[in-house]
Amino acid sequence: MDTCKCSTQIRNLTVRKHDGVILHDVSFDVHHGEILALIGRNGAGKTTLLKALLGRIPYTGTVVFHNSKGEQISNPRIGYVPQNLVFDRSMPVTVGDMLCSNMGGMPVWLGHKKEKLNQARKLLATVGGNPSLLNKRIGSLSGGEMQRVLLAFALDPKPDLLLLDEPVSAVDRRGIEVFYDLVTSMRAEHQMPIILVSHDLSHVEKYATRAVLLDRTVLVSGSVREVMKTPEVREAFGLKLTGGVK
Ligand SMILES: Nc1ncnc2c1ncn2[C@@H]1O[C@H](COP(=O)(O)OP(=O)(O)OP(=O)(O)O)[C@@H](O)[C@H]1O
Fold first, then answer.
1. Is 50 in the pocket of ligand 1 (CB under 6 A)?
2. pTM
3. N or C, which end of the chain has less CB nearby within 10 Å?
4. Residues in domain ABC transporter (predicted)?
5. What is the secondary structure of 171-201 as a DSSP string?
6. Who wins on pLDDT, 187 or 113?
7. Parallel/antiparallel/unpaired status of strands 161-165 and 194-197
8. Which CATH class is domain 1-77+161-246?
């Protein structure tokens, strides 16, 4: 994979639904090589913002993507690891089927060439997935296996922006560390900008480089250290009551 030095600029992004405003005038940048944590209370609009970036819901304002040369790109590739995935677990489709059709743009039922399967095997290896996963039906994956497979999907073709929405909600403690170590090494190696939605401030402090506190609009943004010390974050996460982050 080549190194990506892309960036995304969000300006005055507003989302309205049923006469209400879900997001209002959201503006911030995410640069190559950084993991930007998007934090905020339940219902603050974090997932809605990711959906707007993915182009899945209408918004006003602008989202501009740049490549490593500072050139604007109109059709960015956005990798997305969702909070949870609802699908028919009885589908007779394997991880290999899904990865190969994702990489090659070919329908699952046409079968896969050997080279595509090798590519899928390599991709799985980069996310720490056992090659035996290739033959597993997606409906039979554990939470941790599924997160890895979803990350593999998100990484090939190489994304200009990677969105992680509570990516470890179904993963055990050891799996969480493995997942974030993986994301951190992806960031170091490939430098793609990453937006991470997380409710867990200890993960944010450990793995993110910058943070944005959202509540319909951006309340605070800056380095993780700065943002964690603000009264707004303490308020949003009830840290006043417990003594807060030191
Ligand atoms: N399709 C929809 N129609 C109407 N309102 C919606 C819709 N989707 C989300 N909302 C509302 O928008 C607000 C933001 O929701 P969103 O899921 O983006 O919040 P969030 O910050 O991701 O929350 P959580 O931390 O609980 O996942 C909520 O008040 C929600 O009820």
1. no
2. 0.86
3. C
4. 8-240
5. --HHHHHHHHHHHHHHHHHH---EEEE-S-H
6. 187
7. parallel
8. alpha beta
